[in-house]
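Worked example 4.2. Below are the chains of a multi-component assembly; read each line carefully before continuing.
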Amino acid sequence: MRRACIAAIVLAVSSVPADAYEFWLRARTFGQAYQLREYRLVGPDLFLGRRRFTQTLALRIWDIGNFAADRRRARLPDNGLRITWQSYLRIDHDFGLFTSGRVKLTEATRRDAIDVYPELAESVAGLDLLYGHMSIDGLAGGRVSLQLGRVLVDDGWGTSGVDGGTARALVPSTPLAVTVTGGVRVRASSPLGLSAYELDGTSGAGCREYVEGPTPGTGAWKLIDRNRAITNTRLESDYEYCPQRERLQPTIGVAVATSKLRHIGAELGYRRTWSSTVGVIDGVDRLDYPDLGLYPNDFGQAPGSGVNEERVHLRLHGELARGKLAVRPFASARYSLLHAVLDRADLGVRLERGKHGLEPKVEYFYPTFDGDSIFNVFSIEPAADARIGYRYDGEVRATANAWLRRYTGGNAAYAGGSDVSVERDVTSRLRTRLDGLWDDGYGGRRAGGSGEVGWRPTMTSWVRGRVIVLGVAPDDGRPRYVSTSTMLSSTLELGDVAALHLIGESSFDDRQNGQLRALVILDLAFAPEP
Amino acid sequence: MKIVRYIPLLVIGLGVAIGQPHQTDDWSPIIYPDQRIPLIFSHAKHQQRGVACVACHAGATTSRSAVDNLLPTELECRACHPIDRNEPERVVAAAPPARCAACHPGYAPDKPVQRVYLETPPLKFDHAAHVKTPCSGCHGDLSKVDLATRAHLPTMQSCLACHTAGTDQRRCADCHLAKLGGLIETDYPQGSLVPKHSGMGDVHGRGFAKDHRQEAMQLDATCGACHDRSECVACHQGVSRPLEFHVGNYLLTHAVEARRGTPDCSACHRAQSFCVGCHERSGLGNRAPSEFVGTGAFHPPNWIALHPRDAKRNITTCASCHREEDCMNCHSAEPMSMRASPHPKGWRGSAKCKALDSKNRRMCLRCHITQDELGCDWRAN
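Applying the procedure described above to all two chains together yields the following structure tokens:
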């Protein structure tokens, strides 16, 4: 009895009200099975099976702490403090021979595919957190908001992830907002990381170190010796190792943008990512001669750190009109301080009137990569594109696009082309579509077209058939060839949110002489296109 | 290319010539579904007689919900109209009409009166909070209007004229109904609520799922009001082929789009991971024996001589099959190598060389080892 009383008193004193928060989650399961061709020098080509299983979980927990509940009940504007959690987790694995098979390098040497192609680790035993952050909105009278955790950052040219946080503050008495980002860039080697957010140009394998010879300057580059027992696991590469790809990459960013201005917007931003240089790998005495680290550092020439990305970007957009004509001009540019070049820019306008839309624009592209990539040295000649697109969205839906590219520099060259697409609903259950394209100039000629018929026999099933013909005429002396492909697909709705997609594809040409592919996708969170 | 030079002028000219905000004043049939108002009524006549709005719509001053029915009932009409249900044809001299047929068209004593049918708009609205705003501020000038319909209900454009903060995506749910998790509810029996009428440059026309770069890049874009971020990354960082986006036999045709750069492959795929992995595994690369290596099937026989031109202008394509080490086999300055310099004329001393060397010498050290080869001021003897 005494114990019960003590327990009751402790519970009465220490208990706090239980909170239940609104949450929203969406789990999706995908199963994919299809074959890819493996072209071999000797013997018939093989078919590599991909049997991919993917499970995703998106989660939002809304108004943690119930700070906004009173305002909601009182029907007041959502101005004050509000805390929200958002995350997206993905499990992904390919059970097929594509990743788990073996590759014959010579008659005597066979290795696991993932050892020869470590890039395949992308689809092996992946547990990825694409984002996961706590959002704290409504601080300082609604002028400041924070995101803490794995946040996504975007400069208009692509999305990357940062483990850290962002803070956004409205500048008083001005229509401006300042956003500051800080943290560590998400890499494939990050906890629950993925390579899609990583700067491009560097490989996760094939990395070499300089091993000195008997006398200074007589050494050679060799694959980094992992100096560890080969475990022969098929979940990661046993042989190849790139320690620089595993370094932390601190990232900072700041952007000033217009806020709450309608019909016009502008942003000026800066972002910098850097990483420290890998030091000594394993024991320094593992070689006969001084081994001072990943990179030769005999003279102290290896820097303590290096910049991977440093960019300034600017983007503008507007929305104007006269009568029924909507005019949306846009422009953006990005300058890489790391390369001292303007690497991306575009300028255009989207014109819309009723069912018609027209978009002329010019684009500029100078390939740049991670500061650690030697591809930066090879990238010399930028390209400029002029593009125009037309869209009609009536009973017949049509698009037409044309592009013209000029490669500048010492070897000026042109390429260009056009495409047309027409789609029509013949009946409520029958749809047809025709596509045609023609590209020419530098890179060779490609011309072809496709025809598609879509039929909806019942309210819960779709059947589509498509025939593609594509002619290729390389401009480097190789022979011309024509590829043809037929595709038959069906989508069967199994319930409110489940569907089964069945796709069969065949390709015929001189190289593929009858490649067949079959895809089966089970979608347990099916949402048809509106 | 002359045309290209004139495009900036065209853009500026259009902006100057037009110079007025885009207005989309029509109403959404999802927010204001079809109505049936079988009545004869003239707001104009009532206003001419000096009848105030609140005389008939008394609830408008206290209503706090869009669910409230603010239409006057027969009771409000009786305040002026001497209606008597027992006398459908009643006429009172010098008094407002009292006949049933005066308001109910086609009235017949032996038939039921046609009912007014108004769907509740899926909105949150607090009339009481707007009591100081003139009715005409939102409903327009009704002095020349007979029967008011949904055409006289406020559009989002008119709301945003005062509620400038309403363009903040966090504030969308101040007016729109939200579902669990705070996202705007978009599915209604009368259809799906998609932006067409907000005038915020986010119209979701056909093909929007495939091409929405400009809308998504807009500052203060309100995508997150209706869409969870997972919808973006599921496709952009996806591991399954988006069938509506990469249509047809995309394995066969993807090279066409990759060359054009539309869509931008790098927006979703990392060449040195995604592209290299698949190309190499399929035998298009050079790490394993393949019919493509050295046979002229992929690169022409004289590729060694041709490849500098293509690498200079198109290294992104190279990077979709090759790792850096493939280049370094010949281009490294290491001892005993071919030492084929990839640097263009004037590389030393160029702004690009200085920038790369000063910010990340690690890249230089991938090929250059000795002290005398480093730095952009170095000159070959």
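Take a moment to check your reading of the output against the notes. Chain B touches chain A through 145 residues (CB under 8 Å). The longest strand of chain B covers residues 187-188.
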